[in-house]
Amino acid sequence: MISHSRENPSSSPAEKAFCANLLQAIHAAAQPLTILRAGLGNSEADQISLEALRELTTHSAAEVERLCLFFSYIQQFVITESFPPHLAVAELPPLLEHVVDGVGLLFETSGMHLTIELPDACPSVLIDSARTPQALSSVLLLAHSLSRSQDTVQLLVSWSASEVKLIVENQNACVKSFNAEENLSIALAESNIRSQKGTFSYTTNPFRVQIQLATASFQS
Questions:
Q1: What's CA 83's distance to the chain center, in Å?
Q2: Which of 11, 37, 50, 133 is the most exposed place for a label (fewest CB within 10 A)?
Q3: Which mean pLDDT values do the consecutive 10-residue runs of the chain (220 residues) have?
Q4: pLDDT at 60
Q5: What is the DSSP letter of 215?
Q6: Which has the closest alpha carbon to 131: 68, 197, 74?
């Protein structure tokens, strides 16, 4: 008896993470699809009342929005994996202040506090000027969604000769686990940071995200 086998080379950690993220997004997208199929499949256009039709339309629209969101995450995961980052030397303080300004009104109108602590001096970093703000914005928006009125979300920055460390935290925000949308949001933020050779870690109880980026002098 002759058996034939072919060994596949081991996937890299980045490839495994990419596949895991895609599977997570596809699994999440299956839920609204199932709901839509069940709702639309059980409705008879010639028998359904106008009130029921309006309710079905409203409910279906919400599921379509969720479905679009999940497929947007799939697209962004593929883009992040398929295209290399455009790395350039950048100064972090103005970039961070721009990100904070972009979400500040949302925190303010929710009765929350968003603070940023920058050191007097901060070394330049070699980053993708699009992916880094996108990742940080996602983390801050996630922190907002997990926070309550009067909570304080902090963005803390520290540095050494080799790296700059960014921490986003709210000591009052404690959750056991993220929902599908939150999981994908933080997974994409992590993917964007790791594509630049940065490191990304987080905890949910309390909510805390740590991003580390190598300084430009250290990478050169």
A1: 18
A2: 50
A3: 41 84 91 85 66 82 92 94 93 93 95 91 92 96 96 95 94 91 96 95 95 82
A4: 87
A5: B
A6: 197
Nearest to 212 by CA among 167, 165, 169, 168: 165
- Cα distances (Å, whole numbers) of residue 152 to 62, 96, 119, 138: 31, 17, 19, 17
Measured distance CA(76)–CA(46) in Å, rounded: 41
What is the H or E stretch that residue 217 is in? helix 216-219
Structure tokens at 1: 């008896």
Q: pTM for this one?
A: 0.85
Q: Quote helix, strand, coil % in the chain, to nearest 5.
A: 50, 20, 30
Task: Give the type of residue at 60.
Answer: S
Residue where the block lists tokens 């987080």: 202
Other C-beta atoms closer than 10 Å to the C-beta of 122 total 16
Is the peptide bond prior to 9 cis by the omega test (within 30 degrees of 0)? no
Token pair recorded at residue 62: 């919400």
